[in-house]
Amino acid sequence: MGAGKTTFTTALCRALGVREDAVSSPTFAILNEYRAASGEPIYHFDFYRINRLSEALDLGLYDYLDSGYLCLMEWPENIEELLPEETLRVFISVEADNSRKITWDA
Q1: How far apart are CA 91 and CA 37, in angstroms?
Q2: pLDDT single digits (tens) 71-105
């Protein structure tokens, strides 16, 4: 909590042409959809409140993953078993001085 997941997503979406004020954490909605400057959708998930894998499947998770469009996920560890092998995992950690460290694992 509070590591900067939504801030990271906002910055990435802004770089793709999404209005900054359009991006928000989908904690309660679970999924937000934005439009990049190109018109392509960007899907932003928040799986914090997911208790069962079936809940992600009921959202049509594989339809989004198979769409070919960018899917950004907060709390993906809650659905780890459903993620494709080619998932890029980005980690944000809070350092002792409250700065953030971003690493990734392809």
Answers
A1: 26
A2: 999 999 999 999 999 999 999 888 899 888 999 98
**HSE of 7, CA atoms in CB hemisphere, 13 A:** 7
Above 70 in pLDDT, residue 2? Answer: no
Q: What is the rounded CA–CA span in Å between residue 57 and residue 50?
A: 11
Where are the strands (E) in the chain, listed by range?
31-35, 41-46, 70-74, 89-94, 100-105
The residue among 74, 100, 101 whose CA lies nearest residue 89 is 74
Q: How many CB atoms lie within 10 A of CB 26?
A: 22
